[in-house]
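Figure S7 source data.
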Amino acid sequence: MSAESLLPVPAECDIDPERRTWLLATGAMGAAAVTAVAVPLVSSFAPSERAKALGAAVSMDPLTVAPGEIKTVEWRGQPVWVMRRTPDMLAALEHVEGLADPASEVKQQPPYATNPHRSIKPELLVAVGICTHLGCSPVNLPQGTTNTSVPADWKGGFFCPCHGSTFDLAGRVFKNKPAPTNLVVPPHQYLADGTLLIGEDGSGAT
Ligand code: FES
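Tokens for the predicted FE2/S2 (inorganic) cluster complex:
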């Protein structure tokens, strides 16, 4: 996965505070974690300003996400990551040690994502990219990163530069970190292989 430029923070102040928080955090984390890989925002799939204000579900095409890549969709002012995990990444999930809630017993995900990979389709992670400690935006640190904030046997995952919480490639938080819970998996469903709807899953939960 090639390094991408960091998300720009709009100079104007006419965006809502919640969105501004994660945009600013995204910029800050890039400075703090030089080997981190920034996540591109899928702006072409963003709903209208009015729809966003209403918290409408948003759709994107997961087929455009390459193996190992993450794209970010904005939903309710929050960044939602869509990551296509490779077979090696999925295999590594089975051997991650030191997780605080490996079986996702704390309800941070819908029932259909309460499984080891925390997703509907094993290869596709859909998670809110906001740290469950104080709301910073974690960065993606792939396996083999030279960032010394994670252990040498790091299998890939996410690192929050604000206070050092770490999460695996299923968004499961490691023990003894400030973040109390796994990353949130939002309600979502696949209307077709090329259509992922985030924010609405047909169950009535949003
Ligand atoms: S906000 Fe992420 S560790 Fe504190």
